[in-house]
Specification:
3 domains, 8 strands
């Protein structure tokens, strides 16, 4: 229902639903990032008025329109934050999911226009990429454990502290406890220290970051599975989107725009398409007021390739007039063109900003996106100024990122290399025994086969890690997506 205070003949209020992406986001962080980008680029003053926790007005002195931002905040949904996210990201599960396109093709889950050769090629590339990423993550965990161990040792040295078990022994001695009780306390303290160290080694800072950031993808995708019973985290997230959409319609916004980033684009797409059930009358009516959909850094093309059941959704009739623009960055490995969503009328735009590190998180600062958004909302172009250092920073990032990836991969190859060294040790032992107890011919054979034995054994371990193991697990994991319980 429109109100005179919100919209008059000379002044209009435009609603913008903002859906954040993955990670441990703070409430208000994503809207403020957009407002800050507008403020830095605008030549006229921009004022912000907080109306409620998730709603704020943005007034631009150069426009007769007010932008009202409704944040669709979902990071605090049960199952998406805190201890519930522990173990959400599994690098092996990433490898298993990389096998899904091959199984999707065999099951006939792709539309006819998907070329068989293209699907086969991208399937193999995805498996290769997942293997490289698995090795890199394994290497980062190893390097992280080494850094953490050095940091802990340095901290103890800096404080001139002895090991907890030694301190426990000294305290027991000071208390005058008999020797058997001192030994018991020393053993208990040693065991506690060992458990704490094992837990830190098994679940370090990198694991926490991956669970709280990349783990959101697996948690949401699992919850949005059509076979998942009602009441999942996905249902709660989509309900928040619908609530914000109805509120914008109730406030009388003349237009409603949807802006989503990263995983938020998948959430917005599912909410607008009604993935988890039919919408009520109020939500259906509110969808008809949506005029623009803006997606930045969207992984929807990859979701459609790996999990077709989450992406092949029909465009509701209520959204027939909505215009969808998708912005992707060739340097952003998460984003991509949404060519598979042609029935939704997606217009793909390419932007260049940042390097391989920042390309996924600075779309709001790109000239094309901010210009298009400001023109559609305020009727005035807001174009950010380019920093002379931006291109240099982007080049530095793009050079440094592959170098770090290579270092991480080399560290990730520790287990296969260790296996090869073990095989070399076995060869040396056998060669020594045979050389002493047998003929020189037998010793020569073992000596010649040594390098091949090491390479073959290490290669076998590597093959099991990055290909054979995930390939054997993939069919069972794939069936739960396409066969009802």
């Amino acid at each position: 229902m429109k109100t005179a205070s919100d919209n008059t003949e000379s002044h209009q209020t435009v609603g913008l639903l903002v859906v954040h992406g993955i990670g441990d986001q703070d409430r208000g962080e994503t809207p403020e990032k957009l407002v800050e980008a507008l403020r830095n680029a605008a030549t006229e003053p921009i004022a912000t008025t907080i109306r409620s926790t998730d709603v704020r007005d943005v007034d631009f002195a150069g426009s007769d329109r007010t932008l009202r931002i409704y944040e669709v905040y979902w990071a605090d949904v049960a199952g998406m934050r805190g201890s519930a996210t522990k173990g959400a990201f599994d690098a092996e599960l990433l490898q298993v999911a990389a096998q899904f396109p091959r199984l999707n093709r065999r099951a006939g889950l792709y539309p006819e226009q998907e070329g068989r050769l293209g699907v086969r090629m991208w399937s193999q590339l995805l498996v290769l990429f997942a293997g490289i990423l698995y090795l890199a993550l394994s290497g980062l965990k190893l390097l992280g454990a080494m850094v953490e161990g050095a940091r802990q040792a340095s901290r103890h040295r800096g404080r001139h502290r002895s090991a907890p078990a030694v301190e426990s022994w000294r305290a027991a001695k000071a208390d005058g406890l008999p020797i058997h009780r001192r030994i018991r306390r020393f053993a208990a303290s040693s065991a506690a220290t060992a458990r704490e160290g094992a837990e830190q080694a098994a679940y370090g800072w990198l694991d926490r970051e991956l669970d709280e950031v990349a783990g959101d993808i697996f948690t949401y995708v699992e919850a949005a599975n059509p076979n998942t019973p009602p009441g999942s985290p996905a249902d709660a997230i989509l309900r928040r989107f619908d609530d914000a959409l109805r509120q914008a319609a109730h406030d009388g916004c003349s237009e409603i725009h949807v802006l989503a980033h990263s995983l938020g684009t998948v959430i917005a797409y599912h909410a607008l398409a009604g993935l988890r059930g039919e919408a009520d009358d109020g939500t259906s009516a509110a969808r008809a007021a949506v005029t623009h959909i803006w997606t930045i850094g969207s992984p929807l093309d990859k979701v459609a390739f790996v999990w077709p059941s989450l992406a092949n959704l029909e465009r509701p009739a209520a959204l027939a007039k909505a215009r969808w623009r998708n912005y992707s960055n060739p340097l952003d490995p998460v984003s991509g063109r949404l060519d598979r969503f042609a029935s939704w009328g997606v217009v793909n735009q390419t932007v260049w900003a940042g390097g391989l590190f920042r390309s996924h998180v600075i779309y709001e600062e790109t000239r094309r996106f901010l210009r298009d958004l400001s023109e559609a909302i305020f009727g005035v172009s807001v174009i950010p100024r380019r920093s002379p250092w931006s291109a240099l920073t982007a080049v530095a990032e793009s050079v440094l990122a592959p170098l770090l990836l290579f270092v991480a991969m080399m560290a990730g190859l520790f287990l296969p290399v260790y296996a090869g060294l073990v095989a070399w040790g076995i060869k040396w032992l056998l060669g020594t025994v045979v050389g002493v107890a047998s003929s020189s011919a037998g010793s020569a054979i073992i000596h010649w086969s040594g390098p091949w034995l090491s390479i073959g054994f290490g290669g076998l371990i590597l093959l099991v890690m990055v290909w054979a193991g995930p390939r054997s697990r993939a069919p069972e994991a794939h069936r739960k997506w396409h066969q009802p319980d």
